[in-house]
Amino acid sequence: MRHGKKVNHLGRKSAHRHALLSNMASSLILNKRITTTVAKAKALRKYVEPLLTKAKDDTTHSRRTVFSYLQNKESVKTLFGEVASKISDRPGGYTRIIKLGDTRLGDNAEMCLIELVDYNTLYTKDGAAKKAKTRRSRRGGKKAVETTEAAEATTAETSPQVEAKAEKKAKAPAKKSPAKKVPSKKAKE
Q1: How far is 189 from 182, CA to CA, in rounded Å?
Q2: Which of 17, 99, 158, 182 has the smallest set of CB atoms within 10 Å of its CB?
């Protein structure tokens, strides 16, 4: 019976499994998101989350402990540098697994995307706030013209085609809504 044995062996011996998880953790830290199978992603989450927690405390001991797991100087440097500063206020749950609809061609394995939570701007609160700020009003009054001129002024390198389109939009008069048609007397009879 396998009571209490929670380790997913992933069809590999222990040394191969540790090497696989170490390499995947390094890739995740360096690239911020990787595509893999669901089983490997769940095993990787258990492997990498304690390392991310250790990275919050930047001491020599924690660096050496993390390096013993990752065996990659660049990923340790990235982890303790930029990643640790982003995750410093998060109390766990540093990774997100997003299941992809497609399966792998060869063996029909379920694929997923595992990513560091703080590096996806679509799901963070700041990203949602930025998205809300870019809304434009329906009426094309003075403010719309002023904002397009301000946007043109801020962009240093724009192509001539983009500039021509912006000028046309600024010069074009606002379209009026069509007037309501009054039914004629013939239509009533």
Answers
A1: 15
A2: 182
Using CA atoms, how far residue 170 sits from 55, 62, 150, in Å, is: 51, 58, 12
Q: What are phi and psi of 100, to 5 degrees?
A: -95, 150
Q: What are phi and psi of 98, to 5 degrees?
A: -115, 115
Q: What is the pTM of this model?
A: 0.65
CATH classification (class only), 14-125: alpha beta
Residues 67-103 pLDDT 10s:
999 999 999 999 999 999 999 999 999 999 999 999 9
Instruction: Spell out the alpha helix ranges (H) of the chain.
Output: 14-31, 38-55, 60-70, 73-78, 84-86, 125-133, 142-154, 160-171, 185-188
Residue 95: name the closest of 22, 19, 28, 23 by CA: 28
